[in-house]
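Chapter summary example.
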Amino acid sequence: MPNSPSGPVSQLPPIGTLEPGLVLDGFRLEERLHQGGMANLWSVTRLSPVAGEDFPLMMKVPRIKGGEDPATIVGFEVEQMLMPALKGRHVPRFVARGDWTRQAYIVMERIEGESLRPRLDEAPLPLEEVITIGVQVATALQDLHRQHVVHLDIKPSNILIKANGDAVLVDFGLSRHEHLPDLLEEEFALPMGTGPYMSPEQVQFVRNDPRSDLFALGVMLYHLATGERPFGQPNSVRGLRRRLYVEPVPPRAINPDLPAWFQELVLHCLEVKAERRYQSAAQLALDLQHPEGIVLTKRAERVNTSSSIKTLKRWFFALGAEPSVQISTSAQVSRSPIIMAAVDIENATSALLEQLRETVRRIVQTEPGARLACVSVMKVARIGMDELTDKEGKSVHVKQLIALKHWARPISKALNLEDGRLTFHVLEAPDAATAIIDFAAKNGADHIVMGARGASALRRYLGSVSAQVVTQSDCSVTVVREAAPAGR
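The structure predicted for these 488 residues follows.
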């Protein structure tokens, strides 16, 4: 509900007279931070401090001059309704909102960070920076999608990067919350979004698919890496619909220095059909951080756009194409988890490894859209040098990686995981539990499956690892114990 008035309506300033020093519902306007076409942003101070509100504040006020696009007004209503439901470090903290009958506004945390918009003017950027931005934004999107929200207007100007590297998403006027009314869908029948970044399904009036945000992120990565937009800057519905049948120029045709895996990843994001894209932001972030696990397909080899005949065929089928069967935001996120198998290749018994493999197989089998990350920890000394080769001069890291792949081969064959849904990671760390916990947190794992030995001496050793993982991980953890010998 809107804030209670700070006084009679007659004492409130009329719309359009906001200026520094004015007090509105207990908030004093300090300076105007930005004047946009749809809203003004003001730094404000609350006159009566509230416990725990130890962060700078900003007020967003819509610009109402008469003759506005009604969608602009409704979009502000959407943001007023949706922001109180958002939590976490990837969105501004909501503070207050004002009634339209008096003065509409939203007071929120003022993020101390720069938007990504200026980076477009400097594109193409170094690949390392593009990857960092991709991971930051994908991580923020995964957190947003888990809160049942699709942003639907992901673009550089709506992304702020804080000093600690966190991406913060702003401007939720076009967003859709699964459990709140979709005012834009109820009142309008036009595509909603920003032309260059709109997904094909948005063009077809679908507003509930989180994979739309992954398409927009793919557009942004393409632009940052090549300096060009994959679909131009259309300003008509006809222009927007071209992305349903016209393929973008492959990134490596513009910037030959880009690696094949990056082209694979970006074109994977830009698939016309949502079911052919990455299925979650966490899976995209995982590939960005571990490109060695990306399976290269024909997307990576592409050097030209499709022939005119193929484009004509795609245009013909796009004429009557209907969007795919729609599912809820939460259902799409939950059906695309990252399962992490923590495997002690070096020390676990064959019986435990077999039992762990069977447990992992059963879990992944129940999640058709799951990504399986097989992880093994290669222990290294905290101080000093380790032997990185064995007696035969072979790399210990490579040997462990081969053994990990050998362990997972039956799972891959049984579940047909050769399509990029299976990756392998050997972590070099002095502490196994910390390495497992950190990997899971950094890569957005939803479920860790690990083993615990049965022998008493080793159980004490690994038991402490599994207990630490169980107590300190933010996700679900399944501990598989080796069956005790008969008679014990």
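To summarize the output: The first helix runs from residue 70 to 82.
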